[in-house]
Amino acid sequence: MGFFKQIFGTSEPKEEKVLPWQALTDLEQLNAIEEQSKTKTQLIFKHSTRCGISSMVMKQFVRSYDFDTEADLYYLDLLSYRNVSDEVGYKFQVMHQSPQLLIIKNGITVAHASHGAINDLDLERFI
Hints:
The chain has helices at residues 2-8, 28-36, 52-64, 82-92; strands at residues 21-23, 41-47, 71-77, 100-105, 108-114. By secondary structure, it is of the alpha/beta class.
């Protein structure tokens, strides 16, 4: 029986990892993120809910993310909140990409990446 489980897996559902996302839905939050970044690293994950690549990168990010409280983690559905996504680019001086991860410290973007490069970022360096 163990051999078949190794080959075919089990029918038991796997527990999904849930990150402490804060929804980024309002322009006012950007000022708060800027201010909070002076004492704690802020991460913004921009995600397109209609893009397969964005979904794949997000799943990989969630699987590999292992920080509990060292950073605040924001999720931006850029299709639903396009105006917020546009303002993120202006405020934090990054060209729009999707998916995209921004790392904000002391009010500025200290690193950012898009697509598969998101999962190549050494977050520990910035947190």
